[in-house]
Amino acid sequence: MKMRSIISLMLCLCLTAAVLVGCGGNASKPTENVTEAATAAETKTDGIDYMVLVNKTHKLPDDWEEKLETVHMTNSVGDDVETEKKAYDAYLKLKADLEKDGIHVDLDSARRSVADQQRIMDDFTKQYGKDYALKTVATPGYSEHHTGLALDLYLIIDGKDITENEDMMQYPEIWSKIHAKLADYGFILRYLEGREYITGYGYEPWHIRYIDNVDTAKEIMSKDITFEEYLGAYKGGKVDIDYGTSSIYKEDELKDAVIQIECRFASLDGCVLKSIRYAGDEAVTDEKLKAIQEQNPDSKYTQIVEFLMDFHTPENTGDTTLESDRDYTDYQWWLARTADSGWEIVSFGYGA
């Protein structure tokens, strides 16, 4: 679900969570014009660090907003989008290049304030639950969108605005063509598929990040690595994931559960994930389901699943629940869901 839709939802109480579709547009409509009110930030200092890392464990620098120079634009659905100035200039060049290939995009969102992020987090938590919110929305102060360098794109196909995540996922070939051009303009794809345990977020083909260096962007994209790995913020290796054999769940259902676990794990600063494996159908018992239902009486859970994890903690975890410099094996993760909802993490740890 796109952040633009959630912000609109909070501003207009008559909308419901289901009414999140764009109003329609025209691919030939000029959307990149900066409004007359668009000006650079009033305060100019020595500038920002375009290689800054902001994620679930790295907070936005305290003086960032004072240094940030931004512009505003109006997209094809009439929303105002604020973007760091150089990132916006690079986006316009990317956009023009894509249009030569018949691909039309626009900006769904870019910079969001910490206050806006808090409202989004509260809204997602209320509507979809804590675990979905943690997987989808950054903690206020820890969102890359605070930088103004993270841009969320949406597609315009045959004059129609495609703004919802689930709809945009239906065009992998288009996204592949877009990704192939990102580095030429100093952008990288930020949240890679299968790297949730590093980035803390599910795959987002629309979320790009400006780093103001074409050579570096090309290196990151060609190596198919995350920004964290390039900067040395994550030093782990390949993760072994074993979905086992289940007569209860399809592998895609188990993958969805693992993504939830990986996104939560990414919040454990400095911990290195080694493996995750399905605990087996034998762990899924009526007794355990009943116990989880009793612990969460308002949840109406109907299905549960357990995974086991091996990981290593850093020399100083900064977390009172984990020991420093230790190998954890068979660390338990329990997830549950209702008939019409996604997996939620209900407990984790030894004896969970």
Question: Helices and strands in order, then pairings?
Answer:
Layout: H1 3-11, H2 64-67, E1 70-74, E2 80-84, H3 85-100, E3 104-109, H4 114-128, H5 130-136, E4 150-157, E5 160-162, H6 165-168, H7 172-182, E6 187-189, H8 196-199, E7 207-210, H9 214-223, H10 227-231, E8 240-242, H11 251-265, E9 272-278, H12 286-295, E10 303-312, E11 327-337, E12 344-348
Parallel strand pairs: 8-9
Antiparallel strand pairs: 1-2, 3-4, 4-5, 4-7, 6-7, 9-10, 10-11, 11-12
CATH architecture of the largest domain: 2-Layer Sandwich
Low-confidence segments, given as residue ranges, are 3-45
CATH topology of the largest domain: Muramoyl-pentapeptide Carboxypeptidase, domain 2
Provide the number of structural domains.
2
Tally of alpha and pi helices:
12
Name the average pLDDT: 86
Described by the principal axes of the CA atoms, the overall outline is globular
| Count of distinct strands | 12
Estimated share of beta-strand residues? 15-25%
Alpha carbon gap, first and last residue: 31 Å
Instruction: Specify Rg, calculated over alpha carbons.
Output: 21 Å
Question: What's the order of the H and E elements?
Answer: HHEEHEHHEEHHEHEHHEHEHEEE
